[in-house]
Amino acid sequence: MTRTVDTTQELAAFLRARRERLDPQDFDLPARRRTRRTPGLRREEVAELAGVSTDYIVRLEQARGLRPSADVVEALSRALRLTPDERAYLFNLAQQRPRAADEHTTTAAPQLVALVTDLSPLPAMVMNHRCDILAWNDEMARLLLDFDALPPSQRNSMWLCLMHPKMREFYVDRERALREGVAHLRAAWAAHPEDRALTDLIAEFIARDEDFARFWAERDINVNGRGRKVVRHPDVGVITLHFEVLVPVQDPDQRLLVYRPEDDESRSALRRLTAR
């Protein structure tokens, strides 16, 4: 029984298996006179589709110690017509990280929008890695702000914390909330170096807010998936909340944030707020 993964051997076996399952008739390849004696595409055909040499494919499939680059893994994924899950598997075997797409999530998946609604009366919302707020339920809007009244460019949790006048006194420990947000953004910035919108957003924050600039320079990193926040709501007073951040498998660029009241007083305050 295999107890550990030999990535070189598994990479070779996976490439062979995916090559052999392909139907040559699905590809616009030059006609071959000789009869095919093995299923799927030939190695030279995969090499042609991926833009690499046949010898390179042979050495990969024979597990001869090659470690393909991210560009080669991407080319092989296209040539072999891998599904998104298979593509991710191939990148993991090659110990490479795929290049992120130029376009990033700006709308929430419909299933997540429905889930956010179903989570009522708990405040919930969906964000992307930039902290853009993509979907929310009524309870979250009553707890924070009326997001519908904001232009899309301002529907960003860090922008609101820094720039919106109603949010400056919202967190009882504002410095801690700001530090955590900056540490999260720095991690997202490193994970998405090609995301120009995120880079521009961070540059705006540095230029406009001294606290953000100071915390950014400290280079703290913290991707906080759960924790506790104490907020001061103008209508119902102090509310202590636990938060949980969940990342959907099918939409890994989106984050589902759910708040739960910590104690009876907070639960009562949240009820009064949502009943308004």
TrEMBL record:
GO molecular function terms listed in the Swiss-Prot or TrEMBL record: DNA binding
Domain of life of the source: Bacteria
Residues making up the signal peptide according to the UniProt record: none
Domain (HTH cro/C1-type) ranges: 40-87
SUPFAM superfamilies listed in its UniProt record: lambda repressor-like DNA-binding domains
Pfam families: HTH_31, MLTR_LBD
The protein's name: Transcriptional regulator
The organism's taxonomic lineage, starting at the top: Bacteria, Bacillati, Actinomycetota, Actinomycetes, Pseudonocardiales
